[in-house]
Write a structure and sequence with these properties.
Layout (H helix, E strand, L loop, with lengths): L13 H25 L6 H12 L8 H22 L3 H17 L6 H12 L3 H25 L11
Helix pairs in contact: 1-2, 1-6, 2-5, 2-6, 3-4, 3-5, 3-6, 4-5
């Protein structure tokens, strides 16, 4: 049985909510599992928010693969630039988050959870060499798992709508 996605202000059908929650959980479990295999953390909080968008609102422009992958990577790079120029502190993290938002808007890659990735980069100061490829891998996995509900889970909205 296919249930339509909720419209603005409408409560989602319980099956839609259950399906979205189940697929988002599987996507996050996959990130944890791959991270364990690689002995590197792959799940960071902004990616949980990205999974929520992909599975809870797959039709939104900010949920599309171009925005998810591009926004996350662009924001991480901005975080690394801010970290290099101003160091790891709250002021720099706030600057990176704001600059990331502006850059995503200018490049037509808005993905709101990605602004938090810039903040995390500044505050946690990870090394860019493992972080950026792992972030790319994680976002691509989220896209792949995002494609499954419409193909095997009876989700009424095909994901992605655009690339």
């Amino acid at each position: 049985m296919s249930t339509p996605p909720p419209t603005a202000g409408e409560r989602p059908h319980p099956l839609h909510a259950l399906r979205a929650g189940a697929f988002a959980t599987c996507a996050l479990f996959l990130l944890v599992g791959v991270g364990v295999l690689l002995r590197q953390p792959l799940l960071i909080p902004p990616l949980a928010a990205s999974a929520a968008l992909v599975h809870g609102a797959p039709g939104l422009p900010i949920s599309q693969p171009r925005n998810l992958v591009g926004g996350q990577l662009l924001s991480a790079v901005i975080g690394f630039v801010a970290l290099t120029v101003t160091g790891s502190n709250g002021w720099s993290a706030a600057l990176a988050g704001g600059l990331a938002l502006g850059a995503m808007m200018l490049t037509h890659l808005p993905h709101s959870p990605a602004a938090a990735t810039a903040v995390i980069v500044v505050l946690q100061a990870p090394h860019p060499v493992p972080f950026l490829p792992l972030l790319a891998l994680a976002t691509l996995l989220l896209v792949v798992i995002g494609m499954l509900p419409g193909r095997i889970g009876g989700h009424p909205v095909r994901y992605p709508l655009t690339w």
